């Protein structure tokens, strides 16, 4: 016999305050959800509205980019134009320091180097590069003498810039020598003449004596204002102070006229400035150009250059 009595379930009642709390939490979540949804909708609306603004912004950037690109193209174009002008000038404009003779020629090979711009064989000689100190120019050449002249009173012509009107007695150009270089009659001296603005000026000649025979000798005629210096193998051998300003001309350059001289001429060059001693010695150290060797005595390039010490002892 079952002595246990069934227990009746009692109904549990939730307090009103708890119900109110749960309701408040639910409302809070709903409010948060609504707020987030509203924010997303607003962001979406603003993004949709900004499509036109973005397109406008991109269009404005494209215009700026086009203008910047055009400016860049113009800058590059101007740079290339200037570069082209410089290159054309470099290759077509006459050199300030041209070679009149580049290489070696025989002393009896007469030649006239035209100064006519219309001539295809012209080698233009620019006027001196005048500095604050006055006129400046330099003539440089190598000379090799086989022997002396065979006429008692006539000079042997090496080169001159001027006319080809030569005196019948002395064989020196009578009108223009700017400069003129001659080998003395029956001796191993060089006569150098430089015209001045005074046509009656007789103080325009300088002699370089004791030029060795059968040796290559470098000669540089350097003019700065009214001072004429002659360098032999890089050493000043003589100086002449001109009484007047040196005179330049636009005449041709005459080489080895009237039979020339018995020897060789190499690398005759003009500079529109006065070379300094270091530049002159650099030319000396480089030596003569022996590319054209037409005699057996010049086949061997080991020539004995004129000793500077030996030459200085002769002064």
From TrEMBL:
Segments crossing the lipid bilayer: 67-92
UniProt cross-references to InterPro entries, sorted A to Z: ConA-like_dom_sf
Protein name, UniProt field: LamG-like jellyroll fold domain-containing protein
SUPFAM superfamilies (UniProt xref): Concanavalin A-like lectins/glucanases
Keyword check for Transmembrane helix: yes
Alphabetized UniProt keyword annotations: Membrane, Transmembrane, Transmembrane helix
Keyword match Transmembrane: yes
Family matches, as PANTHER family: CHROMOSOME UNDETERMINED SCAFFOLD_146, WHOLE GENOME SHOTGUN SEQUENCE, OOKINETE PROTEIN, PUTATIVE-RELATED
